[in-house]
Amino acid sequence: MAQPHWLRKALAAGAILAAAAGVLAPASSASAAGVSTAVVPPPYAADLPDLSTPAVAYDRAGQPVATGAAVRGADGALLYSARSGSTFGPLQSLGGVIVGDPSVVVNSFGTHFFVRGTDDQVYTNTITPSGAVTGYSTVPGLTVTGDVEALVPNLAPAGSLRIFARGQDGAVWTNSLSAGAWAGWSSLGGFATSDITATRTFAVPNDTVRVFVRGADHRVYVSRVSAGGVTAFEPLGDLQVTSNIAVAEDALFGGGFIAARGTDSGVWTLNLFTIPYVWKPLGGTATSDPAISFQGNVTSLYVRGTDDALYVNKAASPDAPYRGYERIDGAVAGNPAAFGPGVSALGPGLLLARLAGGSLGLNVDPSPTLQPPHKFGGFTPVPGPAVG
């Protein structure tokens, strides 16, 4: 019998999360009265693509906007590769044994990583601007049942960031860091049967973060989080999806358009600027989560096909007609991560994915254009440890 998605990741993770300074002890779950309680994680969908996804480190105030990528190693350790132009340096091991995929964000205080430990606690590690690694510490107060999602909200004070995670009740929980102190976990409600996708939108109010999940009925739901408050999760149409939700993190309005795989295994897109919400089919047969990237006047959507190759489908804008799928040579064994120069600017398109041999692979299109053919030159393995 197939193991549930959350359990497969936990079994693959191995021993307790460890740091260079020693073992990070698991925290016990306790009730308000101090009595230990055993809680079985609620159902977490086994029908989603159970593939690793590279986490791109975005520096919203810097250039380039994407500064590196984090992945889980084959040994369970957290790995990081710093970007240099259109290449990536060797993967650096930050140690530990993590469950699932990491999340990474950049602010003026450094590159911050957030992971789920094998004790289901949230851990953070930081590479400071000088290059020093702080080591692991916990973000206490929540036992999680999914990957952690992190971002730096628009207009946030220097050094601030926000994280999201799925709790034992299946709801989405959030915590924010400001002036070096965590505010504490609070529930956004909902019931997530997917990983959490959070993105800045620059919508009114200007610090709005949109949080997307798949619900218990397999529809996509969104909550809007800002300094002024939180909205309840609302469904976005009636489409049932079988993937995590993709947004374009390198776009100014990345949360305005989303993509997901439907029950027909085809890719579907949704424009959140138009009400009523209407999902549009792009067809294809997807075997991965989709990824979206903007390069100037080219919107590129990527997905893995049944032959394990990635395919790109382009449009002049996210809601314009797409040109059709083009095959990108090379087999991949993970979900794609795609990004460009940032803020919808012109520039190269970059693809990251785990290769069949276990390496993290990089592929570059030096000058994306709307018309085929694409110009991706082939996957080049990023030096360093194997990716899990």
Describe the structure in your own words:
This protein is mainly β and 388 residues long. It has a single domain, classed as Fucose-specific lectin (Neuraminidase, 6 Propeller). Helix content is 2%, strand content 41%. A hairpin with a 2-residue loop joins strand 14 and strand 15. The longest helix has 9 residues. The protein is globular and about 50 Å long. The N terminus is likely disordered. This is PLL-like beta propeller domain-containing protein. InterPro entries: PLL-like_beta-prop. It comes from Nonomuraea fuscirosea.
What descriptive keywords fit this protein?
388 residues; mainly beta; Neuraminidase; 9-stranded mixed β-sheet; 2% helix; 41% strand
The best one-word shape is globular
Q: What oligomeric arrangement do these chains adopt?
A: single chain
Question: What is the name of the CATH superfamily?
Answer: Fucose-specific lectin
CATH class: Mainly Beta
DSSP helix count?
A: 1
Ends apart, CA distance between termini:
23 Å
Structural class: mainly beta
Low-confidence stretches: 1-39
CATH architecture: 6 Propeller
Q: The CATH topology is what?
A: Neuraminidase
Number of domains: 1
Mean pLDDT, to the nearest integer, reads 87
Signal peptide: 1-32
Keywords: Signal
Protein name: PLL-like beta propeller domain-containing protein
Organism: Nonomuraea fuscirosea
